[in-house]
Amino acid sequence: MLRLRFAPQTLEFKHPFRISSGMRTHTPVVFTELSFHGLTGYGEASMPPYLGESHESVIRFLNKAKALLAGIKEPFDISVILQQVDQLEEKNTSAKASVDIALHDLVGKILGKPWYELWNIDKDKAPFTTYTIGIGGEEMLEQKLEEGKDFRILKLKMGGENDRTMLYALRKLSNKPVAVDVNQGWKDKQHALNMIIMMKDLDVLFVEQPLPKEMKEEQRWLYERSPLPLIADESVQRFGDIEKAKGYFNGINIKLMKCTGMLEAYRMIAEARRVEMKVLIGCMSESSCAVSAAAQLTPLADWADLDGPLLIKQDHFDGVKFISGKITLPDAPGIGAVPKGEFPNEK
Ligand code: MG
């Protein structure tokens, strides 16, 4: 029998930021525990507003998953178990990810090995993570660059009024390579192309989700002309979306909370490679629990954007480290994340 427990929590941001619907100061998460014969795996669901999940929806889903898991004798048939969890209901991807991560952690602990080792992945090939510079005024830039001075690659959020000014201001202060994330913020394809052409000579690595996901024809037009790689984030959620992104994007941003977890993320990397697309491993606002799980896969990726735990005030887990920005995987078994002190409010 597999015993699932879970606890809702709120993570506060170090720096609140503006989104279209107002200021974001915190994010809801749910931590999970899956136990079997005295060993426990940990997981996490993080719910960004745009995926439509909440504490209530995740708890409702996890109560269903709890009943299902209670009827399962042993945890080793990961893909069969996760298929059953996936079929409980549509969507609920972060709730599903919290079960997937806890199950991987549990099985890794039973086998005594971290997942990169079980997958036969060379952990030394893990990339450097990007360090996020949010949308804001130039006055924040110096402070943010100072805070991120140990990181080698920056990520600049765009889609505001002053994209061009911010990039030029950044370039005056730093010559580090920059990944740009527009978060669907540009609404005009010609403007997007002009911006990308301008950025090409400013050491920009790639541009993530330049246009709203609904603007499919404009996206194809942009893809055919863009001098920089275009990476799909909001346009690609799960495995089945990859095929549709071919011919529209050069690569995909895989996040555990979008795709239901480590198993599907692993399969998505293989599929992206099969159709010759680049891979970015990203995260939502998450603790070191979910990010350590995602980090297990990063040696297979071209880039990683896993600075989530650095952007929250209190991290409930110890796990993956960023040493001068390089993703450094712990030797601990499973996902390599260990709760700090008491596990929050067991339920
Ligand atoms: Mg993004």
How would you characterize this protein structure?
This protein is of the alpha/beta class and 347 residues long. The protein is built from 12 helices and 15 strands. The chain has helices spanning 55-70, 78-86, 93-111, 115-118, 141-147, 163-173, 189-200, 216-225, 242-245, 256-259, 262-274, 288-295; strands at 3-19, 22-36, 39-46, 130-133, 153-157, 178-181, 204-208, 230-232, 251-255, 278-282, 303-305, 317-318, 321-323, 326-328, 338-339. Bound molecules: magnesium ion. Magnesium ion binds next to loops.
What's the CATH architecture of the largest domain?
A: Alpha-Beta Barrel
- Count of domains: 2
> What value does the average pLDDT take?
95
**Strand portion, in percent?**
15-25%
Q: And the CATH topology of the largest domain?
A: TIM Barrel
Indicate the percent of residues in helices. 25-40%
Number of helices: 12
Task: Identify the bound ligands.
Answer: magnesium ion
Amino- and carboxy-terminal Cα gap: 18 Å
Query: What is the ordering of alpha helices and beta strands?
Result: EEEHHHHEHEHEHEHEHEHHEHEEEEE
- Biggest sheet strand line-up: 4-5-6-7-8-9-10-11
The Cα radius of gyration reads 20 Å
Poorly predicted parts: none
Biggest sheet statistics: 8 strands, parallel
Overall morphology:
globular
Number of beta strands: 15
Instruction: Please write the CATH class name of the largest domain.
Output: Alpha Beta
